[in-house]
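We append the chain.
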Amino acid sequence: MSDDTIVYHSNQFFVSLEDSIMEDTILAFLEDLNAVEIWKSGKLNMALWEVIGFPFTTGDGETIIDIHDAISRSKRKTKIHNASLNIQQTINSALAFEGATCFDITQLSKVQGDSSEIKISILDTGISDISDNSTANYNYNLTNYSGYDYIHNDAIPDDENGHGTHLAGIIHSITHQHIPTQNRITFDIRKTHDAAGQAFLSTIVMALLDALDADANIVNMSFGYQGVYHDSLFFPLQVVIEEAWQNKVLVVIAGGNGTINNDLADTIALPASFPTNNILSVASLDCGNNLSLFSNYGGASVDLAVLGENIPGPNLASGLVEYSGTSQAAALITAVSALKATYIVQYTPEKVICPLLQTAEHLFELADKVLADGKLNFDGLFLVSDSTCLQTGFHCNKNYTGSDKLTGTMASPMMTETNLQIQSDQNLELGSLVTLDALQSTTLLPGFEVTLGATLQIRSNGCEE
């Protein structure tokens, strides 16, 4: 079913349960709602319920005609914190542009480090046998991986769409551009989307939890949907991404191909715009370092940009195909993040996020378009140690109080590295505006000035523990 552009399951919905809820209480609720339990996570106190059929009449005489009524009744129960629709998500069709690619894989050339072993989990349409697609420049010999097919419920995540195969090939061609003497990067492929590129959030939630159980360190999610975000609403996928943060897992997500500002639009790209510390949301650039015409953006909600047009990768048949999108851009960042992570002792997501954002090459064209105000700086990334980055005081997705000293990119293009003291008693959230009352030190971009009394937007660049 659908309401305008949101498509959802007509009988299934998520519930967030109270910690102390008893099993007999759950059974009573299910009977009252004419429903059965499809899935439950006891650790997260979250479940997926399915109504057997509509309409039905409850024991107290209320007629429930559709899933919205069922959710409304669920929310009135004291042991249920919240409830939400099981939304369907469709992967954007891959974009093909005319003209030669400017992608040069040799510019992303780095051998694997020997400090950490990293597992990349790709949630997408699966993977086909791409070993025969390899060329002198592109290593697609990805034949050894864990995973699961949630569409056909088996252990072989065979791709029927092509999107997942393309992304897996892109990532592997970078992480294994140089054949390691001891492989430190492994793969986990989870087929969440069917041949049409469609998946319900329930499948994605289960797959992400399974990826955590499989000890994934980095998860690539090159998909999304348009939705209204408010912190009072219940987003099951956000709950699981926050659980991934607790498990020290980085989640790289495509920023979206809707040409919208994820900071300001009424409906924004989710899950890319969830305010969760371990998300890296990625925008796409063209060959001229301009934001791609299709790419979403947002100075507080999209983290970094990288080339996302005409990126070569394997297709379902034997051969290469060039596709464009924030999906491809996210795959590049996933691969680079994995390479960086192999050089990190005691890997954590912030030890990758911090140097990625701190070393970004600042571009005037990306001012206020992405959090880093720039694009991936591959060479610079490997010149900064994770310990050095974290000691600089750069912050990551943090709210600020009036007494905090803010360090980082505060308002581009005015400043690149600035310490300023906020004279205010109010809490300052990312994206809020503040008057610059006291400037302690500053490094300005050429041709720009900062004056006391200027109104700036609270931004962050990098992270701290």
